[in-house]
Amino acid sequence: VQLQASGGGLVQPGGSLRLSCAASGRILSINRMGWYRQVPGKQRELVATITSGGETNYQESVKGRFTISKANAKNTVLLQMNSLKPEDTAVYYCNLDNVNYYSAHDEIVALKDYWGQGTLVTVSS
User: Fold this and answer.
1) For residues 27 and 109, what is the distance between their CA atoms, to the nearest angstrom?
2) 26 DSSP 8-state letter
3) How far is CA 51 from CA 10, 29, 68, 82, 99, in A?
4) Closest by alpha carbon to 46, among 123, 54, 27, 56?
């Protein structure tokens, strides 16, 4: 399984960015995909998640500003971030929760958590 995250960058306060996370490989199922973020010296925190059934969950501070959705491409989620604030500055990580996939030996492997490389979002004037 591989995760490809993209979309980070520098934006002014009040601006928008869209993050994309695409999972590839011989994936059988993914229970939930989501985004977490982390700043130096702090614990990684949930930003938003979406289940295979489309149920979403957001951190309170991003409700009404961020929207997580599934893209048309399989196993791809988008995070639309609007009205960005300096406190949104962080490294954002894509996460797969409860993913099942075929290994190179055609065995079914179950993973509780799978993380992609982070993408930096900087909100600054």
Assistant:
1) 10
2) S
3) 29, 11, 10, 22, 11
4) 56
